Amino acid sequence: MQKVFYSHSAKHTITDVSGNKTIDQIKAEFGNYADLQEIEIDPEIEAVKAQPNGDIEKYNRKDETAVAKAAKKAAKDEKEARLKTQLSLSDSDWNDLKEALR
Description:
102 residues, alpha+beta, 2 domains, three-stranded antiparallel beta sheet
């Protein structure tokens, strides 16, 4: 486990990879941030992001990456379908065109 410390006022993120440091130790080492927050994460599957209100939130980065990839693929498929329709191509003609452009 790792600990992530975040100061909204300074916009600083500090990661303690040992997971052993306290807020007081981080303040002594990096500066006395008044609004320092602490959150513990599993770096294999989690990450943190700062919210507009200054809070930090952990999220499952693997799930978020999968959702982003799916959205990107859906957008690409939609663009391809629109272009195929505009060019009035059959499936085989579309595949031939894609292969020729690679």
